[in-house]
Design goal:
Distance between the termini: 81 Å
Number of domains: 2
Strand content: 15-25%
Number of helices: 7
Shape: elongated
Number of strands: 7
Order of helices and strands: EHEHHEEEEHEHHH
Strand order of the largest sheet: 1-2-6-5-4-3-7
Oligomer: single chain
């Protein structure tokens, strides 16, 4: 491949990758990466987009199971409900290269957990231990539950009688309404029967 055919791009790495690789940026040959997986990407821009999303904020980083150098890692990230991005980054002599990029079924992200994990993004908003969760529950109970005796509001006998009368009125109104519906339904049923008498079946 000639230099003219190559499209190189530089990517800024997240802090975890910087700590592992010792460099803040990595270079990728987008043309080469696209040619390796044309079935996964529409074009080189899509390859670039996946790499940017993964290396800027990976969910997991593992040691490459087939390393070509001492500092050789695979980073993964969920892109959407169906796809995950996977990017391979390695220190190659004096330069950090992105040697691998693809999209896979999001279920493959869990398989990375079974490898030698060197970084995993913490879950946001979840307690990190049972003790934290238990402590939170106790504070919620202490702050939100008060004595039941002070929360009961006594009602006068007349307000209870009024509610009972409303219920009786509602029941009688409901009966009248049901009788009207039945009467209309009977009239409609008789008309429909008369129409059907002349129809052959």
């Amino acid at each position: 491949m000639s230099e003219k055919e190559r499209e190189l791009a530089i990517f800024h790495l997240c802090k975890s990758l910087v700590d592992l690789l010792g460099e803040e940026q990595a270079i990728a040959d987008l043309t080469l990466l696209y040619k390796r997986h044309p079935e996964m990407f529409k074009n080189k821009d899509e390859v670039k987009e996946v790499i940017e999303k993964v290396v800027s904020e990976p969910e997991i980083i593992i040691k490459n199971p087939s390393p070509m150098s001492e500092k050789d890692y695979i980073a993964g990230k969920k892109l959407n409900d169906k796809k995950m991005g996977e990017v391979g980054v390695r220190q190659d002599e004096n330069i950090v290269k992105i040697f691998h990029a693809n999209e896979k079924n999001v279920k493959k992200l869990k398989q990375l957990d079974k490898k030698e994990v060197v970084y995993k993004q913490p879950m946001v908003g979840t307690p990190t231990s049972y003790t934290q969760a238990q402590s939170l529950d106790e504070r919620l109970v202490d702050n939100n539950i008060s004595s039941t005796a002070t929360d009961i509001i006594p009602q006068s006998a007349t307000s209870l009688e009024n509610k009972t009368n409303l219920t009786k009125v509602s029941e009688s109104a409901l009966k009248r309404m049901q009788q009207k519906i039945d009467a209309v339904a009977q009239k409609g049923f008789k008309k429909d029967n008369n129409k059907d008498k002349g129809v052959e079946r």
